[in-house]
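Re-run with default settings, no changes from the original entry. Doing this only to confirm the output is reproducible before filing.
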Amino acid sequence: MALNVTVVAADRGVWSGEARRVIARTTEGEMGILPGHEPVLAIVAGGEVRIVTADGEHLTARADGGFLSVENDRVMVVADQAELVDA
């Protein structure tokens, strides 16, 4: 079982693919998301979104402003500004 993850900025797609795990900083604190996570909508608190891909690769995206949505093993990070950064 894997997550289908999409990270987008207001003007472009940043990353999309399958992942084992996503960790994101929200206004409620850091949130870990695994397959089977309950549906949630959260405000991204400007910071890192860490992704472990289905192949075990570790990616980090910087996301400023926006929200994170989880439903049916789909994770969407929609940010005002977002980019992949070196971890």
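The mean pLDDT is 94. The CA atoms of residues 41 and 69 lie 5 Å apart.
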